[in-house]
Amino acid sequence: MSPLHLNKQTSSKNPSNLPHVVILGGGFAGLAAGKALAKYPVKITLVDKENHHLFQPLLYQVATAGLSAADIAQPLRHIFSGQSNLTTLMDEVVDFDLDASKVHLRSQSLSYDYMVVALGVTTGYFGNQQWARFAPGLKTLDEATELRRRVLSAFERAELANDPDEAALWLTFVVVGGGPTGVELAGAIAELAQHVMAKDFRHIDSTKAEVHLIEASPRLLNNFPEGQSSYAHKRLTKMGVKVHLGEPVTSVSAEGVTLSQSTISSGTILWAAGVEANSVANKLGQVPRDRAGRLEVNPDLVLPNSENVFIAGDLAKMSDLKGKQVPCLAPAATQMGRHAAKQIARDLAGRPLQPFIYFDKGNMATIGRSSAVANYRKISINGYFAWVAWLGVHLVFLMGMRNRISVFLNWVWSYLAWRQGARIITKKLPGRSDG
Ligand SMILES: Cc1cc2nc3c(=O)[nH]c(=O)nc-3n(C[C@H](O)[C@H](O)[C@H](O)COP(=O)(O)OP(=O)(O)OC[C@H]3O[C@@H](n4cnc5c(N)ncnc54)[C@H](O)[C@@H]3O)c2cc1C
């Protein structure tokens, strides 16, 4: 490992002489990096195109009207208001000049001594970007509110339809992708239709709504033990979800989806199937990447063609020293962000960089009310206790006390009353041509 280039003659009395650390992205990795550098004599600039940190694990509840957008996001300025060595910029990264140690934002360019790139991933359509219009993904608050608009509007469209076939089309929901997000979305839409909407419409019977969950591989929840995949499958089937396994989607249109062996007509298609690296990361030069474009980084998280650029979070593709593939999960992103920060501190102290070791905190997915799967090392639990654990973990890791209280009260209310508090449509009803 070659030492990073830096004049370490810095003075904490004169902030302008302090090493400048630029952190790109205020997600789990960027946030952890910023916080871990709080006590070091560095000047930090954290850049994000949004003004908030988003708790993505609860996005599906915004998409299915269980929570409001503000419940799962927290302004970055507020999070760092007490950290005097960090400045937040709401701006978009557009390009890099690694040779000059510069990053170009939409409004200005920043020079850095160290840079942590934690820009995450976006929804991937396996080369079929034209499907995005008909089947939006779920990565941002905008996307979650768009999904909510489509799901709630579908019930309204069905209520307005004079033709029963048209009503049936609007009451058919397709979720593509049988990972945790797809399972969570399918379960939540089934519950919405069966229980929450059931009493509120006069013409349609929302309990007749069909929810299809499509997965190309032979089982749901591929990253979980097989027993938990079949548990999730059975639970969803009991909730009325039609699960299609081993059937890749071959086309998506305003009319519905075509699978390898069948076609499903649907007015609402939600995409939870793939990820691809943030496109701006293509501008980081000739670096090995996986098929999704994620950057294969050195064991210490340094970008291969640089000495002072760290990649952290979902954007980094790596196996740790023990050969363990680091997954695209919030705890992994947090650990990487923290590790990158520690390496910067080590380098400033003239110490060699250390490899990243991932500490596996397990995996969880909720299926519906009182039902989830959770595993930690060799321990797997399914059902009610997994669900309670899921609720607890998500409350604890959600950012901000106000949000925790609001989410907790919402959950209690929904549980007791079978009501969803965020059933508001704020934009016009989409027509078929809107996707
Ligand atoms: C729907 C969903 C459910 C999930 N559920 C779970 C779960 O239950 N448990 C779990 O552990 N993990 C879950 N994850 C995964 C987890 O959220 C990610 O692993 C984690 O968010 C990755 O953190 P990150 O910091 O790498 O990226 P992100 O959190 O995605 O942050 C990237 C940041 O970069 C910013 N950004 C992007 N492009 C630019 C640009 N050009 N300029 C400036 N800023 C930019 C974005 O606004 C964002 O704030 C889920 C993810 C999703 C989408």
SSE inventory with pairings:
Blueprint: E1 20-24, H1 28-36, E2 43-48, E3 52-54, H2 59-63, E4 73-75, H3 76-79, E5 86-90, E6 93-97, E7 102-105, E8 109-111, E9 114-117, E10 121-123, H4 141-160, H5 164-170, E11 172-176, H6 180-196, E12 210-215, H7 226-238, E13 241-245, E14 249-253, E15 256-259, E16 263-265, E17 268-271, E18 275-277, E19 295-296, E20 309-311, E21 316-317, H8 330-348, E22 363-368, E23 371-376, E24 379-383, H9 384-397, H10 401-417
Parallel strand pairs: 1-2, 1-9, 2-5, 9-20, 11-12, 11-17, 12-13, 19-21
Antiparallel strand pairs: 3-4, 6-7, 7-8, 10-18, 14-15, 15-16, 22-23, 23-24
Helix pairs in contact: 1-8, 4-5
The protein binds flavin-adenine dinucleotide.
Give a structural overview.
With 435 residues, the protein is α/β, with parallel strands linked by helices. The protein folds into 2 domains: 15-49 and 91-122 and 275-348, FAD/NAD(P)-binding domain (3-Layer(bba) Sandwich); 129-273 and 369-434, FAD/NAD(P)-binding domain (3-Layer(bba) Sandwich). The protein contains 10 helices and 24 strands. The protein has a 5-stranded parallel beta sheet, covered by helices on one side. Strands 13-12-11-17 form a 4-stranded parallel beta sheet. The chain has a 3-stranded antiparallel beta sheet with strand order 6-7-8, with no helix packed on it. Helix 1 packs parallel to helix 8 (330-348) and helix 4 runs antiparallel to helix 5 (164-170). Flavin-adenine dinucleotide is lined by residues 25-30, 47-50, 56-57, 59-60, 92-93, 118-120, 138-139, 180-181, 278, 280, 313-315, 328-331, 333. The site of flavin-adenine dinucleotide (FAD) has 33 residues, from helix 1, strand 2, helix 2, helix 6 and helix 8.
